[in-house]
Amino acid sequence: MARTTSADVARASGVSRTTVSYVLNGRRDASISEVTRERVVETARRLGYAPSAAARALRTGRSDLVLCVLPDWPIGPVVDALLEDLTEELAARGMALLAHHGRDRRPLADLWRAVDVRAVVGLTAFAPEDEAAMRRAGIQVLTTAAAEGGGRAPFAGDQVRAGRLQAEHLAGTGRRALGYAYPADRRVVAFADQRLAGVRAACAELDLPAPVVREVALETTSAAAAVRGWRSAGDAVTGVAAYNDEVALAVLAGVREEGLRVPDDVAVVGVDDVPLARLAAPPLTTVAQSVDRQVAHLVAQLVAGIDDGDADHGPSAAPSDLLELVVRESA
Hints:
Blueprint: H1 6-13, H2 17-24, H3 34-47, H4 53-60, E1 65-70, H5 77-91, E2 96-101, H6 108-115, E3 119-122, H7 128-136, E4 140-143, H8 159-172, E5 178-183, H9 189-205, E6 212-216, H10 220-231, E7 239-242, H11 245-257, E8 267-272, E9 285-289, H12 291-308, E10 323-326
Parallel strand pairs: 1-2, 1-3, 3-4, 5-6, 5-7, 7-8, 8-9
Antiparallel strand pairs: 9-10
GO molecular function, one term: DNA-binding transcription factor activity
Protein name: LacI family DNA-binding transcriptional regulator
Domain HTH lacI-type: 4-60
């Protein structure tokens, strides 16, 4: 079906295309009667006319597209929720989200030059040459890359603190020998290493042995092998901090496979508070990351930079209280 154009609206309204343009663009400096304005608006609505993004960009001098560059990460519940919330927040401000997955190895410049974006958001740091080129082009650039030596990104929660919260809670329930369930997916090692660093730091401060690290794939066999390793350690592990909720769910399966009980024999804590966490058997204790607040902060940064007309408007630090321990039966 052919796309409705402004010429179609003009013909159906009995006016010129210039008049249609003035009415639909809200121009009040032209002598057009209210009756004519109402007729044009009603005709455009009836025909389903919508100006193209390219036309809007040419008319206003700016695009309404925001490009979100996703690294080569698994698209799990947290990233999915982030994209959904970001889409809604931007839509409320008259902007649209375009997501680009990092598995596409073409140069990033090929994309942002082709689609004429207003802002680019990266969930990891951009290559310096890419970021410099985008800023020279007047594109607002935000990245969630953590500050040098820090565990928190401009709108992501403090991943080191997430690990600390896990270890501190397990220790608070009387668990003295802790294990860490490390993910088998190499794409998420940056997050896993930060969370493990938090677990290790908390153990050192609480005078506990260093956590026993075991890799856990998302399958019962792998998880059961990890549980056997933890239980055969010098001090049998009685509390496990898992990289995230998916790995924690695998650990629960591994504990059951070994004929043990949660939390009686082994307590388990995850990260993310995905919907399945509360449906686990037993329901999973976890560290929730406030995705909605993270996205609200990110959008505020984008809007501030765009409104200022400053492509170098940098992101401020995220709120410090984005993480919350959610205690359920698994620990």
